[in-house]
Fold this protein.
Amino acid sequence: MLTGIPNTSGSVEWQSPANIALVKYWGKRPVQWPMNPSLSFVLKESVVRIRMDYEIGADIDFHLRGFSLNGQDNEAFAGRIERYLSGLSTFFPFLRHARLSIHSHSSFPHSAGIASSAAAFSALALCVGSIEARMTGKEESGSEFLRKASFMARLGSGSACRSLWGGMVIWGHTKWVAGSSDDHGCRLDEGAVHEDFRQLNDAVLIVDSRTKKVSSSEGHALMHTHPFRKQRVEQAGHNMERILGALRSGHMDLFGEVMENEALSLHSLMMSSTPGYILMHPNTILMIDRIRSFRQRTHTPAYLTLDAGPNIHLIYPASHKEAVRGFIVEELSSLCEDGRWIDDRMGEGPVALG
Ligand code: PMV
């Protein structure tokens, strides 16, 4: 804890990954607490790098001097970031006296069907945590530091709180995982994850890269009055129990069954809300069909999930890379927008760059 505001300046830099949910967070309570627990893993190649230059002094008022994305000033995003950082001053009082400049670089195209907000808000939270650590002489690593960063990332974008660790990460309290919390993410112990699930690949199949008709924030809000709200909470709890069991025992089929059930349930909730809406495209449905028949035909453990959009994440153990790549090239890439897909895999979490 700081007493008084010292005059100081410097620069911090973090790289943080996007994550893909297997059990979906859908619907929230104020302030950004989830309606149900969710589970995800972070990606290796889909990352955002953020450098934050700071000047802090008693006579400075909070101010974001500039925000750039891939070398270009980005005023649209700057407003959201400024509001977010100003809100964090409740937890980091020094921010009230900070002048900041933020430079961010994304390794993946903004509209590639990968949620960039999880990577961006987790990197921002880590940068603010690092500034505090440098001012107080605390460590910029370790479980306490990451838990606090996860708490802060959650306030920017709920799913961002799951981007702080490699391996499988859970967010939301569940009796099945000690230490799980609605406040922040929590990494599953190695012992809770069978080795068959430690090297998963994720092929992101881009069906449509345009901005969605209905944003995730609007989708979360529609869950307040959703006729299946109660059932969804029960279903997510049940699916969490089943997928945790599958992860522990190495039951690949059950893992895939739960993952696909979660993806299609998420989209059913969108269709059955008021007003209802559909984010899947005809090619999304065609791909789902082809993936399921490929699996039946070849017994390859490749399963799909979808975020709140039309693009498919095809998840499979790295040991089946050749077969799945051949399948994508022969049967799926022609259904992708301009043949585009991203070859990604499970990553190890954020990296401190400076
Ligand atoms: O964190 P948000 O508000 O972008 O919501 C994410 C919602 C889903 O991606 C659909 C599911 C999830 O758990 O990531």
